[in-house]
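User: Please predict the structure of the protein below. I'd like the answer in structure-token form so I can feed it into my own downstream comparison script.

Assistant: Understood. Taking the following sequence of 179 residues as input:
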Amino acid sequence: IQYHCLWQCPHTQAIWKRILTLCYRLKLEGMLTWGGAVWSSLSEPATIYESTQEIMAYSIKHGKILVYWLLPYSKQTFSEKDSLTWDLIIHAGLWVIYKCRCKKFFKEKTIPPVEAIKEIWAEIIYNLRGQYDSMLGDSDAATMARLAFLRTWAQSPFFTLENTTPQWHYSPPKWLFPP
């Protein structure tokens, strides 16, 4: 049941496709696997493959052999920045998918994939903002922590900088919602 609810369900797959579109736009190009299913963020839109052989053939053809395992979890191919980004996006995605499934089961309320993506985006923004806000202060340590945070996340779509202060993008970008 867990495999179906978090991975195979068509409703969930629509959410994963948008999550991997976000990964693609952030240049986290690779594959996410769980059981026999493999998602690829090597292209837009994201693609699902039925076997590891299919995705490895695609990967080798395109010169990319990165596989991001969801279970068992391994991040051996990531840089530190990519690892932080991956953790944030995937965990926000799993959390919101889980909450959507609970709402469907306990309240008989279906959350459309577009609304789920908006919730995932909000989870990411609030997580990042919470991290940044915890670094406020005039100490050298707080200043260094803020600079490290800004270096890590400055090229992301989550905020823009105005005078070294993040202006948070609370609405997800339009490219997450293809027609």
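That's the full token string. The radius of gyration is 17 Å.
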